[in-house]
Design a protein that fits this description.
mainly beta; four-stranded antiparallel sheet; 18 strands
């Protein structure tokens, strides 16, 4: 709205819009810390050639680059205990899912799916799993993995396209987007992939959904 893409906050009724960042190029994918004291976000350099994960205070102060890597690091997601951030990165040559401490230390690669593009991680409320989007040549699926890289599971093996998962606050369901019926709509399923239910039925594209607390 002011030229470059920046991070803003507003009240839930749309009032009180406040711009938090003032950085060159493009900034996005904001994610609140569990205690609401900080916000993690992605900042693109050179309009997309590289990107890093930054954190800042909730009022926009004290912006710090925590990934600072000559790669494309994107879509941060705070762990429920506030100690780690999951993110996607191509620093190993392919987009995979990583976790790191909130100061950027100890980055650990969780996935090794070199034939797939992996992005949009999201922690479960109990911190026991990370859901993410994984795209192959013939499908786009929602996978879950433990934060130590174990127990990789495809939750949507029977859906040709499922993406952008978000856990319910109680951890029992996952909302996501899918075009399994010919158009991108919002669906919900149990955390094990069962009981699939379609929520929207529109002619436009419905994506990037999220739960109210």
């Amino acid at each position: 709205r002011d030229g470059d893409a920046e991070v803003y906050v507003m009240n839930s009724d749309g009032t009180g819009v406040i711009r938090l960042t003032n950085l060159p190029d493009a900034t996005g994918a904001p994610c609140w810390a569990p205690d609401m004291s900080k916000i993690a976000f992605e900042h693109k350099n050179n309009w997309g050639d590289e990107a890093d994960i930054y954190i800042m205070n909730a009022d926009g102060s004290n912006i710090v680059n925590i990934s600072n890597n000559p790669a494309y690091d994107s879509h941060p997601s705070w762990s429920p205990d506030g100690r780690q951030i999951a993110f996607a990165s191509d620093r190993g040559g392919n987009f995979e899912i990583y976790v790191m401490n909130t100061d950027g230390s100890n980055p650990i690669r969780l996935t090794n799916l070199s034939d797939r593009w992996n992005d949009f991680p999201c922690w479960s409320p109990d911190g026991g799993k990370i859901a993410f989007t994984s795209q192959g040549d013939s499908d786009t699926a929602i996978y879950v993995i433990n934060p130590d890289g174990s127990n990789l599971t495809n939750l949507t093996p029977n859906i040709s396209a499922a993406a952008l998962p978000r856990w319910s606050p109680n951890g029992e369901q996952i909302v996501f987007s899918s075009n399994r019926d010919g158009n991108w709509e919002v669906y919900v399923m149990d955390a094990d992939g069962s009981n699939l239910t379609r929520l929207t039925n529109n002619t436009w594209i419905d994506m990037f959904c999220s739960w109210a607390p």
